[in-house]
TrEMBL record, chain A:
Residues 170-442 form the MHD domain. Its main location: membrane. Belongs to the adaptor complexes medium subunit family. It is found in: Cell membrane; Membrane, Coated pit. This is AP-2 complex subunit mu. It comes from Zalophus californianus (California sealion). The gene is AP2M1.
UniProtKB/TrEMBL annotation, chain B:
It comes from the Eukaryota. This is AP complex subunit beta. The gene is AP1B1. Keywords: Acetylation, Membrane, Protein transport, Transport. Transmembrane segments: none annotated. One of its GO terms (molecular function) is clathrin binding. The lineage of its organism: Eukaryota, Metazoa, Chordata, Craniata, Vertebrata.
């Protein structure tokens, strides 16, 4: 298991050092600093073995978190734990920076003592932790016996992510379907790979211990239901399953927050859960079929002699004309020996940014089924460098108000048998946001 | 309030100031001081001098302050054991606190203080906490048992904590269950033999239930523990798989990977015809792909594991090539791993796409990545024959880019393509030759020279090209020098008229002006070959080369199977067994996949299963590497001339183990058995042997003599057989046999160097085996073994090594080390080398023993087509230490009663029935350890028929 956990600043100074196992000594702290932080080269692996000691590290801004072990630990678990550790710290004091870590070092030690015991990760849900690890710290005397046992049962219990006795005057929930659409396209416009990775984020302000059921237009569910109705009413409405099938989407794979009953999903494909209070990520999913690609990028690069490049890029929006895409940014890479750039664009603003070796073209808004164009002349310094310019792909950023995967929320039902509010009393909000992930076209 | 100010106090006299503050009356000031102390401790300053002052602050109601003091204690208690005792009272008191959080805190901290005296005081509070009413305290106490075990294992056993821990597996709270499982798994790892976890269908059921309810971390502990279980049949395996598959949709990647591990392992037991098997395969692909959208570090872990999974079961991801396409912003470690997997998944169906991608990658920035991409194109050509042409043209395009390292890498892989498809793509040679000047890396130069030499007859100016390399001969690396030498000799053999001068030049450079023995040797060999018999030289040098194989970098199958059992862990990231990077005994237990057969009866967990269990079809099991690696590490430290001092007792133990106490009762005299009615002692029931027979026996004696020449009254020696083919051992071929001469056993080895490099530093080591065979002296190879040289060695053996029952019984696993690598092979030794000289039992004893051994231990065998008569048989057997105790004639049949004794004291009694008219003998064997009978029979066969 994890033998020790260290946090360093960008210089390699230790900010936090907590050792859990006897086989990890102080020299491990230095070994990592010397061999990884001060190595002055690109990180070649997130796992490093130095003298039979293994170091796992992740970096958040310029802070290094390293977990150390001498045993054959579960590597995936160690990384998951490090991410979780970052989440917990962020939930307590915001951004992970040297200043924040120094300001909260006592708290961090307290957290480390709680969420890692002898190197075994323990309950690390912030909701639960915040009930008994507080920055005031002096709470213990004022707690009643009931409160104490409530804390412990939540930390260890089946529903460790929610406490009892939550009350809201107005029961309300927000569902955000956040998708990032990823694309890799060849210069000829052939889709090399495309996928949507989506998240359903829920913000719930519900009283009691509400039982929720979430439904979306998942092909498997729709087809199952379609079949059911088709069997009953097959003679009367033979076209029904076909129509509903068209509106459904094929989900390649999905993962759920730990509150979702996985065995139920496996057997019935229904998503039921008792949500944590406040914001959490209900599920993640991935689709690859029938993706709506909101934009198409058509590049044209022509080398005019050895010292000039002509670039023309056309972008086409491909969605309902009534919808508006926002925050559109096209990034056209330029060679390292660029000496000057002239840009002409029909819409938005374009600028050559020498420090980033790219032309950045920004458009605030663009409606569906429109087209826009930029052309640029790039002047190059003559070089002796034999090596050809690698021509990095043209990348794009945008935000659209729909889900490129086609996912639709069908329902989110809330049942709270003990308190007297019904599904109808809950105010529900649903929002779809599609963003660009890695959206690249090679040129 | 900010705490960062505590980091900045660096003035002198600080310790003194802190001391004053710690002893202050004001609570706030005290707390501030402790914080300063902790800050100093973090940055590595020694603040141990403040020990008593800090410990004084322990008695407080302030939980935050208490935690800080505990943190200090954990760090410094070990350096101040006597003073640490001061803290004991507070701990014990805290363990009784009404607040469960404080009780848990106390027991958690106490376990971290590694001071013997404190651990004594820990036992009572821990016992209470294990049975605490609050689950939070119980889950903390469960981990504390593991802590205590790490400090003092004996104490934990004596105090009976292990049983309490086992009870916690049935606890009502899922987190307590999970922590108990984690603690037990860790403790069990250091006691491989004990059946601590005691996994059985009932406990597995409990774990599977808890799996649905506990935290994500708990699920990982439980899944990792489940993976150690071996279901009793395919049904059980399937039902566990069914209950584990829902975990594949968990948001935590570690839960997913651990579930994949369980499934991959148990799948091994399912029949491929089963519908469920197909379903499971389909279910595995999507979660593995999803792992690739995780953070880069986790992607890396996932990719390393997918690399293993793809090698073990390529069908799972064969349609998922696209997801492994490299993204421009991927970190380099992710890129390199993806590339590796792309090549493994490349097939005729997707090769066009793959090639287009690889070509794209070859223009990227990172040099390592570009090189690997170029190399990958070559590997595609070798793997998918239909694509070879396209690959070659892609490589040619890349060479046109003139990017130095791209060109060099391309030339290296084109050489491999030539070796795979000879005489097919020579048209490209011209293009390659254009780039001669830009090659500055030895590997690329050597590859180019090889191409020129190999195709010298088609390259008009081959002599000029090679001559240009020759100018700086001494500045080249050995690799290039050797290649150049060979290439020029090839050229000479192909175009002898124009190149005589060149070849003389290179031969003199190699033999006279070089200090490199390899080069000199090769030079001399060529020289002599050319001067004695040019035709032979042609046959040797221009011989047809074997085609290179498709995949060269696959992980060796037994290692792969072991690594599959470690999915998700560090071992799977390093692609090494844990013993290669974990110190000491911890975590080096071998794991193996369960056998596919559904009928396996054993319910033992894989840890206790013998290493040989997995592949039941092949009897000669390659020893699991880690074991031998460990053994060979010993070897490096000192030659294992004789066994450890305890060896003899361990032999005894082993023998008892093998026989179940057979020896004692065998030797014990049981007077009432003597002269039993069934058995008439054969006095001189002398049936006069007829003349022919005696003549026959005489002849056979003579024959014996001739065949036994050189063995000097020793037992029969089988001809040498090849044990380790050169193919498998980087050119080292080992053949050998076993002999027994006047009481000493030896292993006659013949080592042949079929590689091109000198071999030195030989050493040998045996794995534990059934009879404790071990080398009695180090392997003595006096001079280095040059290429094509053979050396014969007789390695004396003794039987005082450590004992482990092998399957088959006479299996011997051997590791041979030389300067190149360590090689493993296993061989079967004939049992008769273990027959000792004093194996003749006295008649009375024979009679009694024969009666005493139960009839079910008797085994009967037929020895067919043996032309010898009783006399001859008897004498021949005697030379191999099988002694005839008595002989009689019943109804025209000769009955021989024989005895033999094995080195470990096992007696074997035999009755051999010989009919003069019938060349088939009937052999009845009785022994306390019936498992040896089969092998004794084989020994009879070999001795009598050779």
């Amino acid at each position: 298991m994890i033998g020790g956990l260290f946090i360093y600043n960008h210089k390699g100074e230790v900010l936090i050092s907590r050792v859990y196992r006897d086989d990890i000594g102080r020299n491990a702290v230095d070994a990592f600093r010397v061999n990884v932080i001060h190595a002055r080269q690109q990180v070649r692996s997130p796992v490093t073995n130095i003298a039979r000691t293994s170091f796992f590290h992740v970096k958040r801004s310029n802070i290094w978190l390293a977990a150390v072990t001498k045993q054959n630990v579960n590597a995936a678990m160690v990384f998951e734990f490090l991410y979780k550790m970052c989440d917990v710290m962020a939930a307590y004091f915001g951004k992970i920076s040297e200043e924040n870590i120094k300001n909260n070092f006592v708290l961090i030690y307290e957290l480390l003592d709680e969420i890692l015991d002898f190197g075994y990760p323990q309950n690390s849900e912030t909701g639960a932790l915040k009930t008994f690890i507080t920055q005031q710290g002096i709470k213990s005397q004022h707690q009643t016996k009931e409160e104490q046992s409530q804390i412990t049962s939540q930390v260890t219990g089946q529903i460790g992510w929610r406490r009892e006795g939550i009350k809201y005057r107005r029961n309300e929930l927000f569902l955000d379907v956040l998708e990032s659409v990823n694309l890799l396209m060849s210069p000829q416009g052939q889709v090399l790979s495309a996928h949507v990775s989506g998240r359903v984020v829920m913000k719930s302000y519900l009283s009691g211990m509400p039982e929720c059921k979430f439904g979306m237009n998942d092909k498997i569910v729709i087809e199952k239901q379609g079949k059911g109705t088709a069997d009953e009413t097959s003679k009367r409405r033979p076209s029904a399953p076909a129509r509903s099938g068209k509106q459904s989407i094929a989900i390649d794979d999905c993962t759920f927050h730990q509150c979702v009953r996985l065995s139920k999903f496996d057997s019935e494909r229904s998503i039921s859960f008792i949500p944590p209070d406040g914001e959490f990520e209900l599920m993640r999913y991935r689709t690859t079929k029938d993706i709506i690609l909101p934009f198409r990028v058509i590049p044209l690069v022509r080398e005019v002699g050895r010292t000039k490049l002509e670039v023309k890029v056309v972008i086409k929006s491909n969605f309902k004309p009534s919808l508006l895409a926002q925050k559109i940014e096209v990034r056209i890479p330029t060679p390292l020996n660029t000496s000057g750039v002239q840009v002409i664009c029909m819409k938005g603003k374009a600028k050559y940014k020498a420090s980033e070796n790219a032309i950045v073209w920004k458009i605030k808004r663009m409606a569906g089924m429109k087209e826009s164009q930029i052309s640029a002349e790039i002047e190059l310094l003559p070089t002796n460098d034999k090596k050809k310019w690698a021509r990095p792909p043209i990348s794009m950023n945008f935000e659209v108000p729909f889900a490129p995967s086609g996912l639709k929320v069908r329902y989110l039902k809330v049942f709270e048998p003990k308190l007297n509010y019904s599904d109808h009393d809950v105010i529900k909000w649903v929002r779809y946001i599609g963003r660009s992930g890695i959206y690249e076209t090679r040129c | 309030m900010t705490d960062s100010k505590y980091f900045t106090t660096t003035k002198k006299g600080e310790i003194f100031e802190l001391k004053a503050e710690l002893n202050s009356d004001k609570k706030e000031k005290k707390k501030e001081a402790v914080k300063k102390v902790i800050a100093s401790m973090t940055v590595g300053k020694d603040v141990s001098a403040l020990f008593p002052d800090v410990v004084n602050c322990m008695q407080t109601d302030n939980l935050e302050l208490k935690k800080l003091v505990y943190l200090y204690l954990m760090n410094y208690a070990k350096s101040q054991p006597d003073m640490a005792i001061m803290a004991v009272n507070t701990f014990v008191k805290d363990c009784e606190d009404p607040n469960p959080l404080i009780r848990a805190l106390a027991v958690r901290t106490m376990g971290c203080i590694r001071v013997d005296k404190i651990t004594e005081y820990l036992c009572e509070p821990l016992r209470k906490c294990l049975k605490d009413e609050d689950p939070y305290v119980r889950k903390t106490a469960a981990v504390c048992v593991a802590k205590l075990h790490d400090i003092n294992a004996q104490l934990v056993e004596d105090q009976g904590f292990l049983d309490t821990l086992k009870d916690l597996i049935s606890d009502s709270n899922p987190m307590v269950v999970a922590n108990a499982v984690a603690a037990l798994s860790e403790i069990a790892e250091s006691h491989p033999s004990s059946n601590l976890l005691d996994l059985n269908p009932q406990s597995i059921n409990k774990l599977l239930t808890a799996l649905n309810e506990c935290t994500e971390w708990g699920q990982i502990f439980i899944l990792d523990c489940l993976a150690n279980y071996t279901p009793k049949d395919d049904r059980e395996a399937q039902s566990i798989c069914e209950r584990v598959t829902p975990r594949l949709s968990h948001a935590n990647s570690a839960v997913v990977l651990s579930a994949v591990k369980v499934l991959m392992k148990f799948m091994e037991m399912l029949s491929k015809d089963l519908d469920y098997y197909g379903t499971l395969l389909k279910k595995l692909a999507p979660p593995l792909v999803t792992l690739l959208s995780a953070e880069p570090e986790l992607q890396y872990v996932a990719l390393r594991n997918i690399n293993l999974i793809v090698q073990k079961r390529p069908e799972i991801l064969k349609h998922e090539m696209k997801v492994f396409f490299v993204k421009y912003n991927d970190p380099i470690y992710v890129k390199l791993e993806k590339l590796d997997i792309m090549i493994r998944l490349a097939s005729q169906a997707n090769i066009a796409q793959v090639l287009a991608e690889l070509k794209e990658y070859a223009t990227e920035v990172d040099v390592d990545f570009v090189r690997k991409a170029v190399r990958a194109i070559g590997r595609c050509a070798i793997k998918v024959e239909q694509s070879a042409e396209r690959c070659v043209s892609t490589l040619l395009d890349l060479i046109q880019t003139k990017v130095n390292y791209v060109v060099q890498e391309a030339i290296v892989v084109i050489k491999d393509i030539f070796r795979k498809y000879p005489n097919k793509y020579e048209s490209v040679i011209a293009t390659l030759c254009e780039n001669l000047d830009s090659l500055d890396e030895p590997e690329a130069r050597a590859a180019m020279i090889w191409i020129v030499g190999e195709y010298a007859e088609r390259i008009d100016n081959a002599d000029e090209l090679l001559e240009s390399f020759l100018e700086g001969f001494h500045d080249e690396s050995t690799q290039v020098q050797l290649q150049l030498l060979t290439a020029i000799v090839k050229l000479f053999l192909k175009k002898p008229t124009e190149t005589q001068e060149l070849v003389q030049q290179v031969l003199s450079l190699a033999t006279q002006d070089s200090d490199n023995p390899d080069l000199r040797d090769r030079g001399y060999i060529y020289w002599r070959l050319l001067s004695t018999d040019p035709v032979a030289a042609k046959e040797v040098v221009l011989a047809e080369k074997p085609l290179i194989s498709e995949e060269t970098d696959l992980i060796e199958p037994t290692l792969l199977d072991e690594l599959i059992c470690y999915i998700g862990t560090l071992a799977s990231v390093y692609h090494k067994p844990p013993s290669a990077f974990v110190e000491g005994g911890r975590g080096v237990v071998h794991k193996s996949l369960p056998p596919r057969t559904a009928s396996s009866e054993s319910t033992e967990s894989p840890e206790t299963a013998p290493a040989g269990a997995p592949s039941s079809e092949q009897p000669d099991v390659i020893p699991t590497q880690g074991d031998l690696l460990g053994d060979l590490l010993n070897l490096d430290l000192g030659p294992p001339v004789s066994g450890p001092p305890l060896a003899t007792s361990s032999v005894q133990m082993g023998a008892v183990d093998l026989l179940g106490g057979g020896l004692d009762s065998l030797m014990g005299d049981e007077p009432e058995g003597i002269g039993g009615p069934n058995f008439v002692a054969p006095p001189a029931a002398a049936v006069p042997a007829n003349l022919g027979a005696s003549m026959g026996s005489g002849l056979s004696d003579l024959f014996d003599l001739t065949s036994g020449v050189g063995t000097l009254s020793g037992s029969y020696v089988a001809p040498k057989a090849v044990w380790l083919p050169a193919m498998k051992a980087k050119g080292l071929e080992i053949s050998g046999t076993f002999t027994r001469q006047v009481g000493s056993i030896s292993m006659d080895l013949q080592l042949t160097n079929k590689a091109l490099q000198v071999m030195t530093d030989f050493a040998i080591q045996f794995n534990r085996n059934s009879f404790g065979l071990a080398p009695a002296a180090p392997l003595q190879v006096h001079a280095p073994l040059s290429p094509n040289q053979t050396v014969e060695i007789s390695l004396p053996l003794n039987t005082v090594g450590s004992v482990m029952k092998m399957e088959p019984l006479n299996n011997l696993q051997v590791a041979v080390k030389n300067n190149i690598d360590v090689f493993y092979f296993s061989t079967l030794y004939p049992l008769h080398i273990l027959f000792v000289e004093d194996g003749k039992m006295d008649r009375q004893m024979f009679l009694a023993t024969w009666k005493d051994i139960p009839n079910e231990n008797e085994a009967q065998f037929q020895i067919r087509d043996c032309p010898l008569n009783a006399e001859a048989v008897s004498s021949r057997l005697q030379s191999s230490n099988i002694f005839t105790v008595a002989k009689r004639n019943v109804e025209g049949q000769d009955m021989l009663y024989q005895s033999l004794k094995l080195t470990n004291g096992i007696w074997v009694l035999a009755e051999l029935r010989i009919q003069p008219s019938n060349p088939s003998f009937t052999l009845s064997l009785k022994c306390r350890a019936p498992e040896v009978s089969q092998h004794v029979y084989q020994a009879y066969e070999t001795i009598l028929k050779n």
